[in-house]
Amino acid sequence: MDNSRSNITATAGILGAIVAFFAVVVLLFGVEATILQTLDGLSKGSAYALIALGLTLIFGTLGVVNFAHGALFMIGAFCAVTLSQLLKLSRTVIDETKTDFLGNPAQIQVPYMNDWFGAETGAAIIDWAVPLAILFSIPIMVLVGIVMERGLIKHFYKRPHADQILVTFGLAIVLQEIIKAFYGANPIPTPAPAAFSGSFDFGAMLGFDPNVIIYPYWRIIYFAFGALLIGGVFAFLQFTTFGMVVRAGMADRETVQLLGINIDRRFTLMFGLAAAVAGLAGVMYTPINSPNYHMGMDFLVLSFVVVVVGGMGSLPGAVLAGFLLGVLEAFASMGEVLEVLPGLNQIIIFLVAIIILLTRPRGLMGRKGVMED
Amino acid sequence: MLGLEKKDFRLLMIVVVLTMLAPFILNPFPAESALGETFNAGYPDLMQRFVIFGIFAIGFNILFGLTGYLSFGHAAFLGVGSYAAIWMMKLVTLNVIPAIIMGVIFAGIFALAVGYISLRRSGIYFSILTLAFAQMSYALAYSVLTPITGGETGLQIKATDSPLLSNLEPGEIGRANLFGMDMRTSFELGVGDWLFTFNSGYYIAAVFMLISFYIAIRIFRSPFGTMLRAVKSNQTRMYYTGLNARPYTLAAFVISGMYAGLAGGLLVAMDTQAGPERMFWTASGEVVLMTILGGVGTLIGPVLGAGAIKYMENILSKINKDILHEWFAILPDGIEDFLVTIIYPFVGKGWHLTLGLIFMAVVIFLPGGLVEGGQRIARLFGRKKTKGDGEEATQSTPAE
Amino acid sequence: MSKTDLTRRGLLKTGAVAGAGVALPTIFTAQSAAAFTNEPTGGSVTLGFNVPQTGPYADEGADELRAYELAVEHLNGGGDGGMMNTFSSKALQGNGILGKKVEYVTGDTQTKADAARASAKSMIEKDGAIMITGGSSSGVAVAVQALCQEAGVIFMAGLTHSNDTTGKDRKANGFRHFFNSYMSGAALAPVLAGAYGTDRKAYHLTADYNWGYTTEEAVKSSTEAMGWETVAAVKTPLTQTDFSSYIAPVLQSGADTLVLNHYGGNMVNSLTNAVQFGLRDKQVNGKDFQIIVPLYSRLMAKGAGANVAGIFGSTNWHWSLQDEGSKAFVKSFGTKYGFPPSQAAHTTYVQALLYADAVERAGSFNPCAVVEALEGFEFDGMGNGPTLYRADDHQCFKDVLVVKGKENPDSEFDLLEIVEVTPVEQVTYAPDHPQMGGAEATLGSCNPGA
Questions:
Q1: pTM of the predicted model, to two decimals?
Q2: In chain B, what's the furthest Cα-to-Cα distance?
Q3: Which residue of A has its CA nearest to B398?
Q4: Residue C121's closest chain B neighbor by CA?
């Protein structure tokens, strides 16, 4: 890239800021709280980064403002819900010894899984619905992404951003209403396997008092999973021919096409990839918060902020901004901070976004001329 | 006439006639008929909302349609206008005019501050800056600013409020008025089975809308408007000709913020209540959608878009299963149930679905929004000359 | 100030102006034609059911709507009559209200004050509704109640738990059957003291808006009166979905109890997150760590799944109650819809019946007559034991249920078990209680509109 030098200075500046920030925080809140909130911020940040990464892939490759990206995240989560409900498909047995709320004999549901694999194995399979949904969701999400791109988005490459916003926003509403029609508006609990319940005691490991720095296993897994996925996407773009062509297409679409490469087909696949990334973020998120039909909209604004703070068209920027905002949000949520600055937790993300955009015109690592007109 | 070209004057006159006759146009069905009970929209509250959100969208279009700057936080100005207006009514006078003026002034000041900062960036960076300001306003109004904004429950006029310039009896709840005329006064006209309601509040709001519309036409046709279009088409070229675009865009931003404040003040004047969800990002998104749905950069488009969205929100959401069964009661039971099953997911609690589908349909099939739809119908009927704003719509390639 | 009125379709039914194509201006017809807003003149009367149909509370709204449809059926003499058979007042005949058939219109509050008011206004102005009821949040309840006061119709609140609805924002035309934050605090504190002792350190997480503030205050003051200490109270944004950064510091603070002053999606997420952290497996100050959710709702408990097991909270009503009224209601609701009603369905059903009964007893739809009939009205057989609609603030006073999440639920509805029915005396407060707006709070006078 042509702006590698400015990227290096930027990186140095950012590193310096990070060190200074942590020095202050440790002084103010002590080491334990700092470790704990940083950990939490990183785990939160990995969710932000994953969604923002998918959004940037679409922005960067296709130049499309995709307001339906949150809906993709939501559909991913509902892949997990669907799988868990499929695994729980049951036959009804009438139990005469018990009564239901109307005083009729109670109907007991016996999952087919229990019939097929025995009660213990069956229960274990149901328990592992969320990890299993990872496999289940990848083909579905890629397919959803490709259908969306071929069927709708393709026709909007040349259209103004305003039209893209309207059509993808409309699509997002339609998708979430369909989910609502099937699953209702209430959140649906989709827990992680029992093996991952509870927390890991970092404090005990690092020599602090026990029970002070604890963090749930599943969130640690989420963080690791997010980091792996992000790493995978980068490696894919960096080290494969496919990725190279896509990156070239991101930088200069026409030239790549003049070279006789069918960039459109690759961009379609990129859309599928972005959808899969958003979907996997959603699948893994279900044990953290029970999914509901509007969870995508809840994340939409935030993910746009993350992408823009990171800088338009920059994948590393999106990831960095995701983690940055996650960590800052975690610290702004502390009771000690809120006592001095009440309401800071309400606005921290936006406040940081404003400050960064005013000091760095194109976000943390944005490229010149992308989405600036 | 009125300093307008013939074509624009004709458009203005059409709008004048439409707004003045709205009580007739919006109540096309007999009041007691099944269609009338469902689809008639000529009741005061909805008519008021049509024109008020029309003002909001006209103002938004001055910024977005002319300069191409997409603000994603315009609802904040509407909210600030509402809060200013209701405090004016709570503290000083129940007359709506000072309240509305305060709404416009405060929204203008707030827009100046937000615009001054946000306009340092362009494109999506600008959009996110405006979004950030609006979301911060919303979040703070909902929580820590509760003493000023009433928080979740918002502000209403209470029996304990006694504005300086009004002589209320103790315990009397003050009502918004215009020199003594209550906003809710209505005049009813029964013609056969039809019933038409002429509401004073609506006509006051409509007059404000017409003035706003007139000013918008003047802005569109002025050298200032041309300058704003230049910002949209090629800002770099403007710099090279020695012009600084910032003062122009800032002026457009403040003007459109004041329009939003006017809409906010009018909302309070018609229904004395102000709450923070008016500033939530979905409210900002709504005005964007209204403008695009109607037709970006056209004069009449935003008003049409506002009307379409508000109509769906208020009419579709009220259709329930019973009403559907009533409609199809003549048909055989099987067909009746089938039709109800088919339609029910799109109305009542499913009205969002219809909204989403219409957004998609309009933008796919009518790239110029509802205005283009109107033009196509006009062309279909072989009229060579389309509506006054037709030329405007075709020449304005929407914001890029 | 000039006379005002709101549009009444009823006008046409009189036939006075239904001349053949003749325009008859009818300015301020209120003076001559009607004594109050939307006076029903034909053979039917229209009620407005304003519930959330979109947004996070849509399922709760759908349940409210089911209850209203059931109430209308019963009022018009259909079905098995439900609670009309157990209700202590026998004024209702099953022939509609005052002999007029009950019809209804529905609307979507979207759980937004503006949208709820727009919807309510369309019911009043266009559909001629004489009473508005429903809703699933206090912001909406306060806003619509104020609107009904201005317009001169009765408002029967749905699910609204904030003190403000019948506290500082009380209105003469508005009535609430649901309980409130103060009552939750007063009912919970003794049970908590019994279960967890009087020496506890509590950490509050509070939703950062009016309802959260009143609930935090109520729970704090009643638990502190029992000897508990409040270590910290941290506000969380309404739009927050992930509460981990708020829960992470809890153990470090030395607290041994976490109070989640959250409702709806906030509650589902904060409780899920807290259980995820394994807080309940920890020991602090030599005691087991505990979590408390002051306001429970079965629908929301369902969203949190197994995480509710063993967690205390309070609720207005639960379908497993065994009194005659509850049994009758559960039976007719369950038979019609196939699952037991939620507390939102219960309170809205009861409100609809109470309104109809008040009209019958008053012999008039006039809001002022209805207000008079409801004020100080004592009744029984509606599922909460003997209940009083207090005249001073239009709040119902009745027993409050303290419940606990079930450890091994039998079915997807069987999520809460009743721990104690707190008697009404224990949750009664003075009308000018400081948490209820103090001496300044006033109902004003009833407004019949017109």
A1: 0.91
A2: 74
A3: A160
A4: B45
If we measure between CA atoms, which residue out of A170, A184, C135, C57 comes closest to residue B352?
A170
Q: Are C331 and C109 in contact (CB under 8 A)?
A: no
Q: CB–CB of B143 and C9 under 8 A?
A: no
The C-alpha atoms of residue B345 and residue A177 are separated, in whole angstroms, by 9
Strand-pair category, C131-134 with C154-157: parallel
Chains touching chain B through at least 3 C-beta pairs below 8 angstroms are A, C
Q: Are B211 and B307 in contact (CB under 8 A)?
A: no
Q: What three-state secondary structure class fits B32?
A: coil
Lowest-confidence segment of A297-301, B90-94, B237-241, B298-302 by average pLDDT = B237-241
User: Of B68, B121, B399, which is closest to A361 when you measure between CB atoms?
Assistant: B121
ipTM: 0.90
Spell out the residues 6+ positions from residue B99 whose beta carbon is closer than 8 angstroms to its own. Answer: B84, B85, B86, B88, B89, B93, B176, B265, B268, B269
Apex C427 CA angle, C425 and C428, nearest 5: 65
Tokens of B298: 């056209």
CA B19 to mean position of chain CA atoms? 14
- The subunits that touch chain C, with at least 3 C-beta pairs less than 8 Å apart, are A, B
| Partner-chain contact C208 B186, CB within 8 Å | no
Of C1, C7, C112, the CB nearest to B175: C1
- What pLDDT band is residue A212 in, cutting at 50, 70 and 90? confident
- Spatial distance between the Cα atoms of C282 and C256, rounded to a whole number of angstroms: 9
Residue C152 to chain B, least CA–CA distance (Å): 12
DSSP secondary structure letters along C27-41: ETTHHHH-SSTT---
| Closest chain B residue to the Cα of C19, Cα to Cα | B192
Interval C374-391: pLDDT, tens: 999 999 999 999 999 999
Is-contact C175 C230, C-beta < 8 A? no
Distance CA A93, CA A103 (A): 16
Which pair of tokens denotes residue A163?
């039209």
pLDDT tens-place string over residues B100-153 = 999 999 999 999 999 999 999 988 899 999 999 999 999 999 999 999 998 888
* Most distant pair of Cα atoms in chain A: their distance: 77
Do residues C275 and C287 make contact, with C-beta atoms less than 8 angstroms apart?
A: no
Domain ranges of chain A: 35-88+130-359
- The CATH code of domain A35-88+130-359 reads 1.10.3470
Other beta carbons less than 10 A from residue C439's beta carbon: 10
Residues of A in contact with B132 (CB under 8 A): 305, 350-351, 353-354
For residue C45, the SS3 value is strand
Query: To probe the interface with C, which of B45, B173, B204, B321 has the most C CB atoms within 10 Å?
Result: B45
SS3 state of residue C104: strand
Two tokens, residue B132? 């950030």
Contact call for residues C163 and C435 (beta carbons, < 8 A): yes
Q: What string of H, E and C letters represents the secondary structure of chain A?
A: CCCHHHHHHHHHHHHHHHHHHHHHHHHHHHHHHHHHHHHHHHHHHHHHHHHHHHHHHHHHHHCCCCCCHHHHHHHHHHHHHHHHHHHCCEEEEEEEEEECCCCCEEEEEEEHHHHHHHHHHHHHHHHCHHHHHHHHHHHHHHHHHHHHHHHCHHHHCCCCHHHHHHHHHHHHHHHHHHHHHHHCCCCCCCCCCHHHCCEEEHHHHHCCCCCCCEEEHHHHHHHHHHHHHHHHHHHHHHHCHHHHHHHHHHHCHHHHHHCCCCHHHHHHHHHHHHHHHHHHHHHHHCCCCCCCCCHHHHHHHHHHHHHHHHCCCCHHHHHHHHHHHHHHHHHHCCHHHHHHCCCHHHHHHHHHHHHHHHHCCCCCCCCCCCCCC
For residue B380, what are the contacts with CB-CB under 8 A and spacing of at least 6? none
| Chains adjacent to A (≥3 CB pairs closer than 8 angstroms) | B, C
